Structures are given as structure tokens and as C-alpha cells.
Amino acid sequence: MSEHSNTANPVRLPIVLLVDDEPMSLQVLRRTLDEEFTVLTADNVADAEKVLSEIPVQVVVSDQRMPDMSGTDFLTHVRTQWPDVIRIIISAYTDPVDLIKGINEAGIYSFVPKPWQPEHLILTLKNATRLFALQKENELLNLELKVTAPQLDSQLQHKRRVLKERHHFDNIACAPDSPMKGICAQVARVAPYDISVLVTGESGTGKELITRALHYTSHRADKPFVKENCGAMPVQLLESELFGHTRGAFTGANTDRVGILEKADGGTVFLDEIGDTSLEFQVKLLRFLQEGELRPLGSNRRRKVNVRVISATNRNLETEVRAGRFREDLYYRLATVPIHLPPLREREMDIPVIANRILQSIMISYGKPVEGFTDEAMECISAYRWPGNVRELENEVRRMLVMADDPVLGADLLSPKVLKNVNSDEDEDMPVSLEIGSLKDRVEVLEARILKETLIRNKWNKSKAALELGLSRVGLRAKLERYGLEQHKLGNE
Description:
disordered C terminus
């Protein structure tokens, strides 16, 4: 039985069909998605197919475990009957056979694990409906345009030029005195040669950015660049993704599949999170690197493949080798040239440059222009240690832009975790350590931090800050003078 939502809404929202035999699950999903989509529901496969035959559904979201048919079997049927519909599975189970079957037969767009997060689910569905719209737009353009071979070649050449320019080392955001300048120069010298490179560094430091620059400044730039995240992927699925498989190679392998290494022939393969792979997989990868040949799962025929393999990890592979978790011979194969990217906290001079580059980019994508950051906001951003590195910084800048009402992004828009790091280290009279001194001294350190954080959040409006802290204006002023904060005259009195 299907239910419609948003029928009174004058805005035409994307149509999503939810299929689950549990009424409570359907109800929770519908409530989560109701504001963003026109939501239809079905508690059995027959009703779902009836809806699909009568209504132009854009995305179907199916539970994997249902009594009459599994989610992958149902979506395989949907793929045959309604191939344009984007297909998504929700499941608490991550059986590799189901994953492979979903990819190969059902052609699913995404697996959403249970328990699902509302923000992640909504974002996944928004991306899926966007893909559906782009597919339809592409079909219309194909009907209207008759592209000749020379025109297509010209378009491809233009796209290649754009990619090369976008991913050149000169476009990596960093300050003139940044250690990244030396790293980029080193990588630029390595790029023209077919030599293996291992890029290490914490998550979010820009490992993929460096890898793409390596590819697009090499002689392989006109060939494919393919990325595979090796982290936490079952061995069989990872082997299938890289080496391919033949029909019947394992349960669920109903068709032949060409692996990533073969698809990228002549180009570059980027193996991210290589340190998370199993020893069993490492043996097979080492054999490929030594021989330059691969054998798809279930096949007796070897295939010659010419690719450059670049790998990356946030682990210390030398430590992993000593611990017996990573093969030493594979490590030396991958790390002919090791490149280590320092975290943001070790290159503070880059933070303003990267923050401004991120802001310029998201202003365009969000269609919301601003003039930039206030000096105080940039001081706070530069003082924070950014444990999540560039990825965390990007999230913070996005949040500031979305929340901003003024043409300049002020420090009051920063999240509490960033403001709590503001110690006014530049103020010589303010105590800065919680690790030394008497209890009284440490309490004063904490009090000074809370005062400044509260003032920044309230745009230095002392009346609001005093009210929030439960102080009188006279009491607040005394504390500001005591901790050297009275010199700030940035806000309203």
C-alpha cells in the first residue's frame, strides 16, 4: 500500500519510493525525507511495482531483507523494467556476496548502512535525484545534438586541458614559505617518470590532490586516472574491483567484470588507504606489480596491463612492516619515492591561504558572495589545530558561509570547538597553560578562555556577554581588565 506526501506542496519535489515490509521503518523514513522529497511508500514488492508503473519515480530505496524478495533481487527487476530509476539499498548486513550482486546485477547507486544517519541519507538521495536529472538532461541533449567526430575530439581535448590546469602543482593552495612548496617541487621532478610513489599523511592533508597532480603532469595525463579506496573492503570484493572476474567465479558473479587495473590501462591507478589491506591481498598486488600482468578471478588467462600505481595511507607503513601487518617487499615496491604531507598544525602559514581558496570555491557553488573573513575570524581559524586538517577546515568555512547574514564572515560564526581554542597567546599578561601552576592559576586560565570565547561569540557585545555569564557589567569589565581583554573595542557597548 503506497502513501503520498507533500501533495499540497506547490513546489515539485523529486519523487522517491520507499520499499520496506516494516511499517515502523517506513514511517520513520517518510518523516525524515518528507520535507525534501515527494515520498511514496510500499510495504511489498507488488505494490512497489504498481507505483513504478503508474508514477514517474526518480529514486527507489529498498530494504535488503524482505519476506517476498530480497532488495537486490527486487532492484535487479527494477533495473530491467525501469532502467532510468536510481536504485539504493538500505541494509544492516554487509555480506560481500550481496554487495557484489547489488553492484553487478541490480546496478545500485549506493548502499546505506543501518542504523542510517538522517543527514547522510538526505544527502545520498539529493545526489541520486541530481544524477537522475542529469541523465534525463543528457538524453535530451543527445536527441538535439549531432556531434561529429572532430567536434567530440575537440571537446575531449578541451576537457583534458582543463583537468591538467586544474590539477597542476601551481594550483595547490599554500603560502610562499610553506613546506608544501618543497614537496610540490619534489613531486614535480618525479611526475614525468614511471616510478612508484607512496604518499603518507593524516586524513585530510591532501594526499589525493598530490596524486592527481602527479598524474596530470605526467606523460599519462591523457589516459585514465582511477581511484580505489582499499580501506575496510572485503578481500574478495577488493580483488574483484581491481582485477575483475569471470562469470561464475564466485556466488553472485553472474556476468564478466573488467577490473579497475585493466580499465586504467595506460593511465594511473590510485590505491588509497593501502595500509588497511589484508596480507592475502598484498600478495596478489605484489605479484601484479612484479609481473605487470593480472588474472581475473575465475580466469586462467593472464592479461598484460600497463599502469602506474600510486598509493597512499595515513598509517606508518614502516611500523606496520615491523609489526608483521604489511609485507616488506610490497612496501619497497610501493615506496620508491615516499612523500609525506605534514598536517595543517605544522604549516599554520597555509591556513589563511587554504581558507580563502575554499571560500572562493563554495561561494560560487552556493551562489552566495561575501567579501571574506574578518581579521579576528582569521586569527581564530589560524589558532585552531585542525585535527581533521583541510577536510575539517572546509566544513567549518561552509558552515560559516551558510550561517552568515553580513557581507564579511566574523568570528562569531565559528563553531564552539574552534573558539575554545582561542587563548590569546599574543596577550603576554594572560596565563596560557592548564598544565602548570597552582589551582588558582589554572582556574584563571580557564576563566580567561571562557571570557574571550563568549565575547567573540557575542561580537564583543559586553551587555550580552555579561548576561550569558551571569555577571554584572562592572564585574565583567573588571575581569576583562584583569586578563588584558579590555583593549578589544570591536563590539557594541
